[in-house]
Amino acid sequence: MRANWNLVVDKILTHANDEDLSVLFQLLLTEEERSAVSGRLQVFQTLLAGEMSQRQIATEHQVSIATITRCSNYLKNMSPGQRAKVRKLILD
């Protein structure tokens, strides 16, 4: 079976209320996966805010240094335009 990410995105976009989205994500993701996604979002938000060291982020959000490093490297490799868009998407 070939993964079709656009199908997932389409399903997410067609369910605008929190309750439906919560049910959908519980169906599609395990508790561990939901926790990982949540942790990664918090890491990106904290890195973009620029107020904490990687060790502080790891302690505060209970994520690995490896996760923080991956997120940090991803941000560093973005163009300024991409980074501005990401900042708007997850900080506003």
From TrEMBL:
InterPro entries: Trp_repress, Trp_repress_bac, Trp_repressor/repl_initiator, TrpR-like_sf. Gene3D superfamilies: TrpR-like. Pfam families: Trp_repressor. Its main location: cytoplasm. It is found in: Cytoplasm. Keywords: Cytoplasm, DNA-binding, Repressor, Transcription, Transcription regulation. The keyword Manganese does not apply. SUPFAM superfamilies: TrpR-like (SSF48295). The keyword Repressor applies. Belongs to the TrpR family. This is Trp operon repressor. It comes from Shewanella litoralis. The lineage of its organism: Bacteria, Pseudomonadati, Pseudomonadota, Gammaproteobacteria, Alteromonadales. The gene is trpR.
